[in-house]
Structure formats: structure tokens, C-alpha cells
Amino acid sequence: DVQLVESGGGLVQPGGSLRLSCAASGFGLYNHYMGWVRQAPGKGLEWVGRSRNERNGGTSEYAASVKGRFTVSRDDSTNSVYLQMTSLKTEDTAVYYCVRGGYCSGATCSSFDNWGQGTLVTVS
Amino acid sequence: QSALTQPASVSGSPGQSITISCTGTSSDVGRYIVVSWYQQHPGKAPKLLIFEVTKRPSGVSSRFSGSKSGNTASLTISGLQPEDEADYYCCSYAGDSTYVFGTGTLVTVL
To answer: Could you report the per-residue pLDDT of B70-79, keeping only the tens digit for each?
Structure first.
């Protein structure tokens, strides 16, 4: 079974940094785009960013709200995905979900077909 | 990129059908078939229901169906059941390797 397990959330002061991790199992990371989606308390979902697999260039793309501050990276050898967050703002407070891209080719993925349970980041 | 517009809430009685709309623009929903829908129960992670406008992943009930017309995508739940009570989100590819989610709809089973 596909499983995504996030860790690394916690309380951080504005302007601080935090690194989230996502341990993937049940599939080979090298075959998939991986990304992050967040949800502020009581609010809706927001796409944060993603990392393409090596076969599709290995590049990363971001939402405008986090571009230049957040970095998505991956280690296919350990089946892990990371979200490095810097210059954190209070509005970055949210549950962060690790997601797997489904049926990805070029710039698009048809969906986010598997989600982790999320990890809470509080910026205060 | 503004969030796609969904009704805040939709309700129905058990056995009825309901439809949730998701309105975007010609730059997202209207331009791409990369529209998906997610169900989220309280305190849980979202679950994929529909991808590429109309397709269902294996294991998702056939009571869930999707469609699109112009800049608006729709999710229909047929034969509404108590366990369908949840939040529902649409999502569209928005160009330049970015995605936009809908504002979310709370479905209440009366």
C-alpha cells in the first residue's frame, strides 16, 4: 500500500525556518512527481509546490505565495521528499500535506492521488 | 491566482442527488482537462474522487461523477448517503506548472 508520512512540523517564530520531511513507501519515488499542499486552520486547500522526477527534468515549481522562500527537494535513494521553508510568515501557519502526483507528464499531473496525514506548522 | 469558486454548502436527503459547482476562468478550468475533486472528512486528509474531469480512481464509488462545461466543473453525488457528509474541493491546473484549488463545499446529509 502507498503510504506518505510527514514529520518536522512545530512552532516557529516569524522570519524563522523549518524543514518538513515526507517518508514514502509502497512505491518508487523515482517514478513520480511529489509535492506539498497546505491547509490553514479552518480554511481551504492551497497548492504549495512540487518536484518533478528525474526522467522529467527533476525541476521544482512553486505557488506565487511561497516562491523564493520555500524549496521542495527529494532523495529518491531513500524515498524521501522535503519542504524547506524560510522567512516564515504568520500566514504560513497550516497543516502541510505531502502529496503524490498521479499520471504526470511534462507540466501536468492529472491529480494528487495519495496524501499523507499532514503535519502542523505554526508560525507565531 | 484566485481560488476557484464553489458554493459554501450544499445539502440533500439520503438517496437524493446533489451537484457541486466549481467555477474558474478560461485560464484554468476552461482551458484544461486537468480538473480533479477531493473529499475531506473532519480531521482527515483529503481523498481523490475524480481526475481529468470525469475519471474515477479504482475503489471510488460510481455514485460520484464529474463533468465540465466552459469555465465550470461539477461534481454530482447520486444516492446521497450519510457517509458522504464532508468537505469537497475541486482543483484545476492553472498553467505555468501551477495548480489552484476551489474554496470548498460542505455537504450536509439531512
So the answer is: 999 999 999 9
